[in-house]
Amino acid sequence: MAIFENIINHKIGNISADELLKYASQFNISITKGQAEKIAGYLRGKKVNIFIDSERTALVKQIARITSPETAKEVNKLFVKFTK
Q1: Residue 18 is part of which domain span?
Q2: Alpha-carbon distances of 16 from 23, 34, 39, 53, 73, rounded to whole Å
Q3: Entry's Pfam families (predicted)?
Q4: pTM above 0.85?
């Protein structure tokens, strides 16, 4: 399980806006290209473990600050999908 978590967390830290949009579309989550660019820019290089609730919550709060609370909720749905 740790290998799986490491792969997912590494991908989150290196995700591009286009990849984020692709995953959002795949899971029927609504974000714009501009929002995806802001989020991907913020995530780039971050060392975060989305499998730890407190780290994911802090990350989602930061995403809400740079985009909007609604977008952060949508991104959180995507993170939760990744953790299952």
Answers
A1: 2-83
A2: 11, 12, 9, 23, 19
A3: DUF2624 (PF11116)
A4: no
